Fold each of these.
Amino acid sequence: MSQLDEIVDQLTQSENVDAEDSLNDAACLTKLKKLDGDQMKWNEWSSMFSSTIHNNEDITDTERMSYLQSLVIGPAKDFISGFLCNPNFYSSALKELNRRFGNPQNVVGALTKELEAFQRPAMNDHSALIAFASLLRKVVQTFASHGFSADPNATHLLRIARDKLPNPIKLKWTEHVVDNDWTNPGLTELSD
């Protein structure tokens, strides 16, 4: 193989690697969802953004800011709009997003409102009953993941959830509490 052929071969391999890296970057980016300001989506979005963009040592802060600009929309973008004009403000913009949307009390508050707003499911509406059970599990898991261990046991949250149950299920729940001799059941027990 001539020296010219070797150089062409090396360049071709290098271009293929660069193309593959670009394809991998593009594939990772298409997996990332846009953050629209929904606090309930912050943990998932933040985790994905950190592992794909923020912790990637091959990406500069200028590139990170570009990715951040393309991945925040609506209220989230409005919240950091003053930072987006300068790539030097990347870290500040990310800290502000975390402060606003990653605040555990805000997340728990939003989840409590979601529970309050959930329409009482009918006894024969299986999909609504499953959705309600999923919401209860999400409430308990989210509270626990943010260190709010007492909240799932709060009487007012249990009352909100219990009052949304169809009467036959509410009766079964009451029997279950008595059978287990629980004196202070909470959402954790209700979601099980």
Amino acid sequence: MLQLQNNCIRNIFKVFQINRHNFLRSTNETTLNQVYQNFHKICVANKLKINKCNFCSKPVYDVNTNVVKDVVIFKYENPKFFKVINLFGLSQFFFWTYLSHFAFTTLRDAPVDETIAKEEVWYKRINLGENKFRNALTIFSFLIGYGVLTAAWLFTLRSVRFLVLKKGGKSISLVTYSPFGENRIMTVPLNCVSAETSRESAKVQLPLKIKNRKLFYILDMRGEFTNPRLFDYTVGLKRKLN
């Protein structure tokens, strides 16, 4: 409790630009009345008005996370965007796979005449039908298509559609998009979720780290925080995941 009071007092000092050393001259002042008395003296000295009945009447960190029913605290409804992303990934996969097949079956070994090769530009001197070039083009083309499709699917599977705080406030359900339109639901304990940044400082995306899960889950900031205060004191906290 003393640590929380000290943190609140430090924030007050920053707002009102008060000298902390002139305010807290004794480390034994542990009660709110003593804190208020000293703070009131400083306010009078700085000609600041303060209402005693409103001073620390209710802590700003007093948030009831023990909800009596499931509560949606975030939602991001944009299924059309993810359909386009996955169609793009599939089209790129088929295109590059066809190009890979075409390179492997069509390119023929056609050696370049050495007497003419020296006079030609560098790219005309390359025999693409040679085994090393043909195999390289085949593998490279397939990897491009596979990589694009994998990236599209990973982005979709890690994009959060709904965040649901479960009854009792001890666990959270992440509802994510999937490549084929269905929702995927994963329920984890709240102490296994860590936000990499705060909701207010996140500009485009807010990454969430889940214990024993690779990569991050993504909250798009274009979504709606239906209960921002409850989010900040549950999912929005940065935790150490051992």
